[in-house]
Write a structure and sequence with these properties.
Radius of gyration: 25 Å
Order of helices and strands: EEEHEEEHEEHH
Strand order of the largest sheet: 1-3-4-5-6-7
Distance between the termini: 88 Å
Number of strands: 8
Largest sheet: 6 strands, mixed
Shape: elongated
Number of helices: 4
Helix content: 10-25%
Strand content: 25-35%
């Protein structure tokens, strides 16, 4: 089963309780044969996420997931998050567009189930470095996961091709901000005990 959705369920600023992009999927709606979900963020959602991420623009944001049941009460989502992002070059401050293509492989478990079990016992097939995402009431939020993976895929120091940082020339040592302090140190005489 495949589903393609233009999603705009959360176009207001994100809060801890409400993610910037929300697309909940119920575990009960995933058949034993699995389910495919393709998401495309609308303009309002992209604007909210761009502000959250400190981007100057987010012309495209898409996510595709293949969902399967994981164990008795879990859900596994494998897919990709792709986007076209606009940032300013850290050297020239010129706007640059770049592509994000992040693979996704996460497991969701019910929040109460994970809290009841000792650490590491929730799902033995899950790496200790990658704790499961939480489902609440049997709902997994694919929009929130897509946003997380987009943020992980951003270059924190985007650089325009060919842009090179050139340090300003070293000036006269006397014009250094601490030159006055150095001069005071040289002119002061140590007191003898």
């Amino acid at each position: 089963m495949s589903q393609k959705t233009n999603e705009s369920s959360a176009a207001s600023p994100a809060t801890a309780a409400q993610p910037a992009w929300s697309f909940p999927v119920a575990l009960a709606d995933v058949p034993d044969t699995g389910r495919r979900v393709d998401l495309v963020a609308d303009e309002r959602t992209r604007d909210v996420i761009a502000k959250l991420a400190g981007l100057t623009g987010l012309p495209r944001l898409e996510a595709s997931f293949d969902l399967t049941k994981h164990g008795r009460d879990g859900l596994r989502a494998v897919g990709r998050v792709t986007a076209t992002i606009r940032q300013n070059c850290v050297v020239t401050l010129d706007p640059i567009d770049s592509e994000v293509d992040e693979p996704v492989d996460v497991v969701f478990t019910e929040a109460e189930e994970t809290a009841e079990k000792p650490s590491g016992a929730a799902h033995q097939s899950i790496d200790a470095d990658d704790p499961p995402e939480m489902m609440h009431g049997g709902l997994a939020d694919l929009g929130a996961v897509a946003t997380e993976f987009l943020l992980l895929g951003l270059d924190p120091y985007p650089r325009k091709p060919g842009a090179v940082f050139v340090a300003p020339p070293a000036g006269d040592p006397a014009s250094h901000p601490f030159a006055a302090l150095a001069a005071l140190k040289k002119t002061s005489t140590p007191e003898d005990p």
